[in-house]
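Practice problem: predict the structure.
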Amino acid sequence: MIKDFEHLKDSVGTSEPRTVAVAAAHDPHTLEAVLKAKREGILDYILVGKSREIMKIGRQMGYEISKEFIVDAESDEDAAAKSIELIHDKSADFLQKGLLQTSTLLKAVVNKKTGISKGRPMSHVALLDIPCYHKITGVTDGGMMINPDLEGKKAIVRNAVEMFHGLGYEKPFVSAVCSVEVVNPKMPETLDAEALKQAALQGEFGPCYVEGPISFDLSVSKESAGIKKYESPVTGETDIFFVPNITVGNVMVKALTAFAKARMAGCVVGAQCPIALNSRSASFEEKYFSLLACAQMVQK
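Answer:
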């Protein structure tokens, strides 16, 4: 079980380096993260984008990037398409979003003829290293699926569980977080949480344990659960926080990063390979740890 991002880095570093295809790599923060990981022997790269800009940025950082590791692309759409091709021909193991719109990259990912979709919804997982929590945890989905129905929620849980299996968790604990821990017909999210728990018990998501509905305080504190006489193995041990909609997830992640000083890695899961995906304004550190998370998931 990975306890923090330092542990994640150590774990990735013990395996054979994986290769990332960076779409629109002419971005300083993205290149800084990729080049640092390469220098540390954690991963290899293929940089797709405006070759002159890529090489110029590299030199400004003290690196001479060889042309053999660059695929020139004339536009964002071209960069996305060529990055997908690298996954298809197994030249790269996963994707990293560079300086392009998320929608441009995902449009190439889901292209019915040339994409790498599995034919099911993709979702975003915010992997968080929170100083006051004893292990890495994931929040999903606060970045892609706006207001999923029950089938969409099942896809989100399935994607997150597969991600945590790739991170080395044999049976991740999932909390279907609601504002209360009892089923209330007037609160549809509690009905869905109960349905997700039953689906997990029937084996729909593979090895995992889903609890729901459960309030956030009970999911992170055995003491609070004891006071309320709420019995579940996930209390105080939650690995994945499943949230009912994008607003809850977005606010939760931003609150944890702003007030609890959490460090974040952002990954899109559910395609044929993970995608390290962050805001174009994301810090170097966030992009770096996103790369590490994806590299860990594709270790063979």
